[in-house]
Design brief:
The complex is a heterodimer of chains A (323) and B (182).
Chain A (H helix, E strand, L loop, with lengths): L3 H16 L4 H11 L1 H10 L6 E5 L6 H10 L3 E5 L2 E9 L8 H4 L3 E3 L6 H6 L6 E4 L6 H9 L5 E6 L2 H13 L5 E5 L12 E7 L14 H4 L2 H20 L1 E11 L8 H8 L4 E4 L6 E2 L3 E2 L2 E2 L8 E3 L1 H4 L4 E8 L1
Parallel strand pairs in A: 5-6, 5-8, 6-7, 8-9
Antiparallel strand pairs in A: 1-3, 1-4, 2-3, 9-15, 10-15, 11-14, 12-13, 14-15
Helix pairs in contact in A: 1-2, 1-3, 2-3, 10-11
Chain B lengths: L6 E4 L2 H15 L11 E6 L3 E6 L1 H9 L4 E4 L1 E7 L2 E4 L1 H7 L6 E4 L10 E2 L3 E4 L8 E5 L5 E6 L15 E3 L11 H4 L3
Parallel strand pairs in B: 7-10
Antiparallel strand pairs in B: 1-2, 2-3, 3-5, 5-6, 7-9, 8-12, 10-11
Classes of the chains: A alpha/beta (323), B alpha+beta (182).
The complex binds S-adenosylmethionine.
Chain lengths: 323, 182
């Protein structure tokens, strides 16, 4: 039987969540995954503002020079742990997303946790890399930077509208090694390519980004999550089909929902020979069960980045190698 | 998916000549070097967009059956048989040309005109109609434009005389990335 104070605490959090405008099912599942105390912290964190992070772009300018140019503009920045190429903007008298340096592609505005997927994929000069859900290109431009504009990125985006911002970012950031295709990545096999590495930063319900999009508190039902699940399984299965043996794939979402994360991987592992690799980053281990679902035991090697614990947007990241 | 009525293909010999002649005549023959690490491709839609594509990517493009939306570096466009160098193309040739002016203000980045009094310095005696690469503070690249008056007439020009026209609806200044890109 639940302890009285825990019961009260859970009731309080449900009320807190309701007052903040969340659909009740969301609060229930966060309590079940995180416990009451952490759920409260998550909800509180989602009411704050994320710091602005910029990633210096060595394809355009050495980091130190960009840093100096921004300092001349009185922009105050601090280093970001684990990412020598990134800075947290503490204060800026100018809009950081509209400076001449930004327009010259000397840096990208990019959430801290969204720097992990491309880094974990760790693409090398000369490799053929697929980015199967690419717009607006935060991670594509990061991949190009890690590859030093060598090798090739095939960046796929289904939305013609969003492809425009992808194109704009690639041009602005001086990316020269990308090929953008406006298509459904579920049909990726039709391209007849075999990739060394693939990033699938999948379309998702976005529950890890409520801090910047509060409409997500009510915009998605459990049915919606299951629809995303179907699409994600299909995208991942097709992605694996075009990966070479021993090729690597990073699957990521900015969602905290197990249906879009552990359940997707568990489902795909039923039919595909993939080995989950340990990734050595911040975050909590992936779940092995949730409500009535049991997940593959290897899911502990995946990472869940909770917003309130990482001071960033929520992410799920897993790396797999094709056997 | 919208806007599927385009073709992505290798440039014809005539298109390539058009681009190379434009660069040579307008910016000097050294600028051709900036194209040395790739080949020209055309995305043909309402206008012809010109891309510089390195050979490594070209090999893959030649294998692809899907429709290519973008590749390599977009350098300009061909409209009515005339080549127009655009933002990234002008940035690419920058180290190889003298056609540069430096300006004191940033209104060009908003698609606005540059007036004679905004000019800080220029490195060669341009004539009316010449193309100029526009640089701003700290020599940062702003874009490309056409001289409305020659360098020799600048001293005599009245205030508010337009030196380079800003064209909001064309990808000629880097502010385009904010106006149209996001
Ligand atoms: C999470 S966003 C990707 C963000 C991007 N990776 C970045 O770092 O900037 C997912 C993208 O996938 C696209 N998308 C959705 N379904 C797709 C599909 N079936 N094939 C290709 N792209 C798809 C969406 O339009 C959206 O732009």
């Amino acid at each position: 039987m639940m302890h009285m104070s825990t019961l009260n605490e859970a009731t309080n959090i449900r009320k807190f969540g309701k007052d903040l405008g969340y659909l009740p099912y969301m609060i229930e599942r966060y309590i079940s995954i995180l416990g009451e105390e952490e759920t409260k912290k998550l909800l509180q964190f989602n009411e704050t503002k994320l710091p602005q992070i910029i990633r210096f772009n060595s394809l355009r300018k050495p980091h130190a020079e960009t840093e100096m140019l921004l300092k001349k503009k009185q922009v105050v920045m601090e280093r970001v742990k684990n990412f020598p190429e990134a800075r947290r903007v503490i204060r800026s008298p100018v809009p950081i997303g509209a400076t001449e340096e930004y327009l010259n592609g000397f840096y990208m505005l990019q959430g801290e946790n969204s720097l992990y997927p491309s880094s974990i994929l760790n693409p090398k000069n000369g490799e053929l890399v697929g980015d199967l859900a690419a717009a607006p290109g935060g991670k594509t431009t990061h991949l190009a930077q890690l590859m030093n504009n060598r090798g090739t990125i095939v960046a796929i985006e289904i939305s013609a509208f969003r492809s425009r911002s992808l194109k704009s970012n690639l041009a602005r950031m001086g990316v020269q090694n990308s090929i953008v295709i406006n298509m459904d990545s579920q049909n990726i096999q039709s391209l007849n390519l075999e990739f060394d590495k693939i990033l699938l930063d999948a379309p998702c319900s976005g529950s890890g980004t409520i801090i910047s999009d509060p409409t997500r508190k009510i915009s998605k039902t459990i049915d919606d999550l299951l629809k995303y699940h179907e699409l994600q399984v299909s995208l991942l299965t097709n992605a694996i089909n075009v990966l070479r043996t021993q090729g690597e794939i990073v699957y990521s979402t900015c969602s905290l929902e197990p249906e879009e994360n552990e359940l997707v991987i568990t489902k795909v592992l039923e039919s595909k020979d993939m080995k989950i690799e340990e990734i050595n980053i911040i975050g909590e281990n992936g779940l092995t069960k949730f409500e009535t679902y049991n997940f593959d035991s290897e899911m502990v090697k995946a990472k869940r980045l909770y917003p309130h614990k990482t001071c960033g947007e929520g992410f799920f990241i897993v790396k797999m190698v094709k056997e | 998916m919208e806007n599927n009525d385009f073709v992505f293909r290798k440039s014809s010999a005539m298109e390539e000549t058009l681009v190379l002649n434009h660069l040579k005549e307008m910016f000097g023959s050294k600028t051709i070097q900036s194209l040395s690490n790739g080949n020209l491709w055309i995305k043909e839609g309402k206008i012809k967009e010109v891309f510089l594509i390195p050979e490594e990517q070209e090999k893959i493009i030649l294998k692809l059956s899907g429709e290519i939306y973008y590749a390599g570096t977009p350098i300009g466009s061909i409209v009515e048989n005339e080549f127009q160098l655009e933002i990234e193309g002008s940035s690419l040739i920058l180290p190889f040309t003298n056609n540069k002016i430096k300006i004191k203000t940033s209104q060009f980045l908003y698609g606005k005109h540059i007036f004679v009094e905004n000019l800080e310095s220029y490195s060669y005696n341009f004539d009316k109609g010449d193309y100029l690469i526009i640089l701003g503070k700290n020599n940062l690249h702003y874009g490309i434009g056409k001289a409305e008056i020659g360098a020799k007439d600048i001293d005599k020009a009245k205030q508010n005389t337009i030196l380079v026209k800003g064209l909001k609806d064309k990808p000629l200044d880097r502010g385009w990335y904010l106006r149209r890109g996001n």
